[in-house]
Write the structure tokens for this entry.
Amino acid sequence: MRVLLAEDDADLREVAGMLLASWGCVVTAVADGGAAQDLLEHEERFDVLVLDFDMPVRSGLEVAVRARSLGHEGPVVVWTGWSGPVSQEQVERWGLVLMSKYDVYELGAVVSDLRTEGGPVGDVSRPLP
């Protein structure tokens, strides 16, 4: 499974990328929303997008919306350390999986579930602090 991981925190990007790779994913990791969007616009294909909500250049939500407009039909995980940045209407409208980034192992479990079951839709996160 090909995963695009967009996360501006270098340490978290490295840990999440290693975790996803250990779960059998081929991970392309970038440091901002602009780089993520560039990959998508240049016809890179990914099975799952994991997008930090708050990144430089473009937010994860902006990248998710653009990915959908480019035809990405696969799962889009928007993860965040903030409470409530994405509304339930946005989650439903754009078919997002919203989760907290406080537990990177949960990300691996969610992506694994997306791979094996066709995936959860909606808010599968633990409550944000």
The mean pLDDT is 82.
